[in-house]
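Help! Submission page says 'invalid entity' but I think these are all valid:
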Amino acid sequence: MRKYLAIDYDFCTGCHTCEIACQQEHGLEPDQFGIELTQIGPDQITDRYWQFEFVPIPTDRCDRCTMRQAEGKPPSCVQHCQAGCIYYGTLEELGPRIDKKKVAIFS
Amino acid sequence: MAQPKTADNPEGRKWHWQEGDYEVIRSSARSGPGCHDNCGVLLYVKDGKLEKIEGDPENPYNQGRLCPRCLAYKEMLYHPDRLLYPMKRDRDKRGEDAFERISWDEATEIILREMGKVIDTYGAESIWVTQGTGRDINGYGPLMARYLGTPNYGTGFLSGIACYAPRRFSTALKSGGLFIADYSQYMPDRYDDPRWRRPDYILIWGNNPVVANSDGTLGHWVVECMKRGSKLITIDPKLTWLAGKSDVFLQLRPGTDTALAMALCNHIIENGLQDQEFCDCWCYGYNEFAEHLKPYTPEWAAEICGVDAELIKEAARKIGEAESCCLQWGVAMDHTSEGFVTGMAAYDLMALTGNFENPGGMVDAPFAFDVNVTWSAGDDWELCTHDLPNQDKKICGDWPANKAMQAISPDDLLVAMETGEPYPIKAMWMMQNNALACMGAAPQRIIKALQENMEFNVVVDLFLTPTALACADVLLPAATFAERMGIYGHQPYLLGTINQAIEPLGEVKPDQVIMYEIGKKFGRGEGMEQWTTEEEFYDFCLRNSGFTYKTLQERSWAFPEFEYEKHKKGLLRPDGQPGFNTSTGRYNFYSREMVYFGFPPFPTYEEPPESPVSAPELAEKYPLVLTTGARHWGFFHSEHRQSPSMRRLHPEPTVLIHPKTAEKYGIADGDWVKIENNFGECRQKAKLTVRMREDTVAADHAWWFPERDPGDGTLFGVMESNINKLIPMRPGKSGLGASYKSQLCAISKIEE
């Protein structure tokens, strides 16, 4: 079954933990990314509402932490994400966690 | 000794194990490098070397998560610039790259000789022992001062002790203790504990907790509450991520927070939204408080704060109607001259709405298992040295709050260094205190006093900092957390052990060991507690807890039993009576202590000394409001500038400017900008953003450039982008609180 990396970006604070966890796990340099943060806004959409959000995007360097998975551990970005907003699993496993607005899914 | 009652079940919990080629050591990253948290970590060691660090999924504090600084900890631990050996330098070469490696024995000899001379000539009180805020030495530092025989111990050059002390002391007068936002952190099962309910509203006030993680609060707990339905109200001059997620965002002018708090209380009372039962049963002076607030309407505050009155009313209504609300406060409260009152006013809002000791409200933070040394300076060390005959000589200044809490006045101590009044300060012992770069206001004065007026300076740190380069005569290398043992519990929800994972690099030693090994040679602890091993030392620290280092280590951490509504059960007062641990037994809307100090009994608003309102003539020359010191993801204050992956996140000192404001002054994104005011000037790089108020700029603090040659004469460039040159060393009327976040300034483009 195909597994997906899902980001609930309603709750991503832009803390860079996923980037650094990945670099440390894979021995990457500070300018090499297995997952990279992007920013939306700040954009004043209505008088009272600003969109100022972040979405991390996995790159071609991402191997979904194959080695960790073999040891029964989640990918490093999933475990360490401070906001707990990166999930990994089959669509079935992801279930209600992705049944909402503002979820980005990477296959 | 019987094991104490605990709320967690340690069965099956191990503190070290083998995993493939790795030895895994369970520990906590408190600390250094600097941090205010207690995150559980797993340290993976191979052939004596730390290979990787991960969050500990079993530790209820961080539940396996970890921030970038800790994940990249190896960059600090194994950094080629790490200070690994004791160093000495001739006094006439202060500021020069002229250190010479010495042994610990020689360092100790020099310290005994030179401190001895100062003690003989000027008296032991002429030594000032300082700490910064990074490592876990708040509780231990006073021991060093007692060994040296000086009453002068505290934060180094932090004007008005403007970090937590103003809030903690002023709100203790109100509530009899420290009450903090309840994110379920007291319970080992956390969010799943059936007694806990997420706050309806979290009031994010002068704080960006997800970045700052201050004072034992892991900021992302707020995000977990948001997932469970908590809503936010944010009070900040800058649009933060949390502000963008808030129901109400009050983007106020820096330094006007007290006015806002008073108006929120006013509107709640005007609309009958207060918790009348709590006010009647548990509070002192409610009627007078309500009367006092009458003139302070949302319209009044709107004018002062520069926010819409309707937004203030909406926030007040939401707080008043919520079943629970908690205050997530930040150092901005302390960073204005009259900040002593700001915390009180915000606490009044919590009391008015009955948000004390309720799930998702403000809960008491007592010492876990009676151990306070892990986070707070206590009196534990009286058992370890002879009484201080010069205790009454402590330099508190004439400040009522400092005198009442028997705290030093860093502002007056700097004057004593400069003028010899009330008596000379002639030697410094500075631990984890990079004051020139970080907490010291008016660094122009501090550098002169340290370099020219001191007979002897000892600095203890992880790296050669600008402060050490400027002034250290003896420089001692401190250990980081993987290299040492210890105990943790910064903010006391739990108590646990820091477990040593690797041999210390070079000849580094833990701060605590440096203190008791060198300190006890001064002969003031003769016949008292003596320790030959660290374990003995920590057994002493734990003596009232029911644990020894070993029994605590076996279970890694322990949570005390916890319950809500302690004020109703007689659990807040030592006499076991219901109520709060104050002189009235109630929460004090009316503060008799404030009257004793010569201040009004209720919060009143005063403009910052330098503001467009209080100093219009000054504002003609310096038209913008200057706020400083917001945290960045990769840095803990002045630390981590040498960690490559942390520096990548924020490579240069930046000042945030609204694009319209920047246009007015001909400044483009990325330009170097001169920031100046009546106190001084510095340069930072412009970052244009609509997140700022148009009338306010936000400048970075704590910058230095460790990549520079220490011999280039610039002290790692510490004075170039140093925003504290624009901040005076001057507290507010109480002695606590200073205007780090409410100055005036002008900005102009620097032509390259």
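Support: the input was valid. A stray whitespace character was the problem, and the output above is from the cleaned input. Chain B touches chain A at residues 52-55, 57, 63-68, 71-72, 74, 210-211, 219-220, 223-224, 226-227, 239, 241, 243-244, 249, 633-634, 644-645, 647-649, 689-691 (CB under 8 Å).
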